[in-house]
Amino acid sequence: MKYLNKFFLFPALALGIIMTSCSKNFLDVNDDPNRVTESNVTPELIFPAAAVGVGARQASGDFGFLNNWMGYYAPNGDFAPSLQEQTYSLDFSFGDALWQRHYNVLFDLYQVKTKSLVEGGDTVLAAASMILSAKLFQELVDLYGNIPYSQAFQSKQYPNPTFDKAQDIYNSLLMSLDTAVNYMSTLTGSKSFASVDVVNGGDQTMWIKFANTLRLRLLIRQSEVPGFDPTAEIAKIQATGGVLGAGESANVNPGYVNDVDKQNPYYANYGYTPTGNKATTSVNANNYILGILSSSGDPRIGRFFQPAGSGYVGGTYGDKQSDIPIGSQSSYFGPGLIGDDLDGGAGASQDQWIIPSFESMFLYAEAVARGWIAGDAKAAYESAVTESFVWLGVPNAEAEAADYLTGSDIAIWNNAASTSDKIKLIVYQKYIALTGIDPLESYSDQRRLHFLPDNGYISANPAKVSNTLPLRLLYPQSEYTTNSANVLAEGTIDPFGTKLFWEP
């Protein structure tokens, strides 16, 4: 288990230094400044890479299966598809890389937090790492349920960490965000925080809004849990400045450039190589989302995807390979996602989103519609849709959004009669806005509310084992190999029957 083994790096290095010093001549009093040691690997050195890692996880191809499952992307006819993915025949290898890579970034964030607090008292840097950790831990819970949490990364004391209950982790994450917001609000960090903060440039107010957005996302996810009462947590959000709003995305950018291993992560995966070739030749647009965008006259279609010939062409997920258009005849990813310069490389230097502004605004709109937050739900909803147009760079975005909100049947507020219908309208429009941007959020919303109006996103493969999406992933093989007693204690998991605690 990589996230356990990495803990031994610093103690091993420290031991090596001690043993080496025993053989030194007593006159050799020089230290090698280029040698990595426990003392010179500071939290300020670790944090930028860890923050970049969070952005890379958001853009990762590890979420490719969710882009396919949710009807955003589909394999083209050039390559044989993954039958395991298309038939929902999950095994213990499925999602293994996602699990390990998330925990690897979480390990780095844990090191930032502990070293900041123990060694330097840098509470602001610790808070930033706690906020980013909350995002990744929620994502793991939303995919796997119970996971190692309270004992993770403490390999000396807990070489085989137990699994915490998913509900307990959610509760702990809310408390962790309390602490992080307090650190950001009332205490100060090192003078170098602004220089190492590749997310918000040292803006503590923006970090607090980011934390509040994550808090709201944790609450919204539990909306269908019987007896759930978000009142106290909503009050904390309102008392500390609210959530991310228009123009307030949580992004990361350490200085991406159009060079090998230095590009914006999303551009590197779905844009173009530094030499101008397509970064991926195996996946393109899905007919499901293209149908929604084209039938509603949504101008965002040209920001999500590039036309192929005279129109937009996609693949039907799970269809026979011979019936799917090849990549050169299919719609590739558009300028709203990979940059207006397309293959010219400008998108390679753009910010990598962690949570875009409009996603936060849709969460806020749902909270208002539910009566959790006082306000005008219609206005909040329409502001979120408008922000999606702006964020994607639609020309004349506000005017186009206004036309869409009044002229497209799937977007008109008054077409939704009941509160439940209005909530599903908000989430459906969030689903459209998140095309290729955050498929895990859409996957979670579908499991929570079953809001999609039809099942056209479901795989067309006749060998599929279910006509519905899995409710969760199986624990990965790496966990059974390195932490077998604890993962086996979780019992037998049925990806179609073992629900997460927040799934109705």
TrEMBL record:
Signal peptide: 1-23
This protein's UniProt keywords: Lipoprotein, Signal
Pfam families (UniProt xref): SusD-like_2
Protein name per UniProt: SusD/RagB family nutrient-binding outer membrane lipoprotein
Protein's organism: Ilyomonas limi
Lineage: Bacteria, Pseudomonadati, Bacteroidota, Chitinophagia, Chitinophagales
